[in-house]
Amino acid sequence: MSQPDPERDGEPLKLRERAYASFTERLLAREIRPGQFVTQRELVAMTGYPLGAIRELIPRLEAEGLIKTVPQRGMQVAHVDLNLIRNAFQFRLFLEKEATAAYTRTATDEEIAEQRQRHEAIIGRAEAGGDETLIEDAENVDRLMHEMIIDHLDNDIVSQAFRVTWLKIRLIRQYETRIQNHILIPVMQDHLKIIAAIESRDPEAAAAEMSAHINNARTRAMSY
């Protein structure tokens, strides 16, 4: 019988997770910038977590493609470039087409209705002239719909892979195409097309609408 892993049951795991959250928060806040070279001690200063936690964190960041080791130069934060855009959106396409088809078959009517209500509320606020929290709320509605479809698969590996990719999408949006007023309504309308196909319980149509939505987002990102 295997023994419990104290690294997973105790404080070291918590420290690693908190250090990861601190790193990603600072990355999204642009305190850590794509393409920047960093040392372990600089990451300690940036995140506020001890060197041991940072050493444990680095293999995860490397595995997720958020940091790479450059010979004779050190660790470099991932660039936001055309290669990242192509790879991130292609991976989303692979995951979300199948996830959308599965969601269409088995999601409850109540879940689908809630998705529609959230999107229609955002469009209504935008058409009324918007408000201070509209962009943030729209981004949350956007994220929640994609996460709900992915998490409906009940597959931890897929959900984790999706969240890493979504982090990269957020980086791309910050530097290229963050949901602003001029694309907010088109993005929400894309989502409503997906929702309409889901409501009709047509998996192929729903997957096709999701593909069109992701391709539209990729085209915007690559055109900036």
UniProtKB/TrEMBL annotation:
It holds the Pfam family FCD. Residues 13-80 form the HTH gntR-type domain. The keyword DNA-binding applies. Signal peptide: none annotated. Keywords: DNA-binding, Transcription, Transcription regulation. InterPro entries: GntR_C (IPR011711), TF_FadR/GntR_C (IPR008920), Tscrpt_reg_HTH_GntR (IPR000524), WH-like_DNA-bd_sf (IPR036388), WH_DNA-bd_sf (IPR036390). This is GntR family transcriptional regulator. It comes from Bosea vestrisii. The lineage of its organism: Bacteria, Pseudomonadati, Pseudomonadota, Alphaproteobacteria, Hyphomicrobiales.
